[in-house]
Amino acid sequence: xxxxxxxxxxxxxxxxxxxxxxLEHQLDALLADCLNRAPIGNKGSGIKGIxxxxxxxxxxxxxxxxxxxxxxxxxxxxxxxLGSQTLHYDRDTYLVFTLPTHLVCTTxxxxxxxxxxxxxxxxxxxxxxxxxxxxxxxxxxxxEAGYSVSSxxxxxxxxxxxxxxxxxxxxxxxGNVIGPSLRQELLFHILRGPCGPDxxxxxxxxxxxxxxxxxxxxxxxxxxxxxxxxxxxxxxxMSLSTFHRAFRNRTGQTPLQYVKKLRxxxxxxxxxxxxxxxxxxxxxxGYESCSQxxxxxKGLFGETPREARNLVLHDTG
Length: 317
Prior knowledge:
Strand order of the largest sheet: 1-2-9-4-7-10
Number of helices: 13
Number of strands: 10
């Protein structure tokens, strides 16, 4: 028996790599390690569905696409705009995105005061189980679908869960064994907050949300092919006027504006990440005219496509 214990003690993966500490101290140590690697970046937390992001670089207003998920800022702050809506998110306010969402974001960070946070992806199966369990006691209230982004206050219960998530970072065994339950716990607290009805709406198979979500997924899979507003409306089974109104109410943009931004962001990633030639990237996202592509690209990003070759893009929440 003592021999077995001795053998296990020689294998560091079975030992907790650090004693639990104050979250701020954990952040200090983790940020120092991350910033030594790069001033901007993101990486897995060791828990499936949760990523850590950071930056020490302040950013002027810039267009970004947020995938469906939850953004929790732990240090620093950001400001985003969607249509007429202005969103401030920091350590006291989180954001929930229920569709791929275009925002114009400003990052407030510096070397002395870097920004960092967590991005929690949304898993429909997780939501289904949690909402079903909650409904056995008290159902989440419903409301009409609004913008694809909403905000809520970070509660003490959420901070406690986040602290325990950070306790697992650097401990792959804990991340694998108790990480999924901690992710579920954090989702549970968010479901009980003001954004709960927005997340519950994701499961309404007959609602506008699922129709628009399926449409957007189809467009992204075949981003090269042109598509008209009339075709989009037909695919959702809505009249043209109903579709236009529903799409704008959810995304803050017209359907054609939204699709154009999807294409330009996809092209930017090809050029910056894969080294794709500008003309090839333009064709890959459905542009027949390279000059039109360059003009619209510069109109969105404030730079030419060729300048994107010098970028290293990171999703920093």
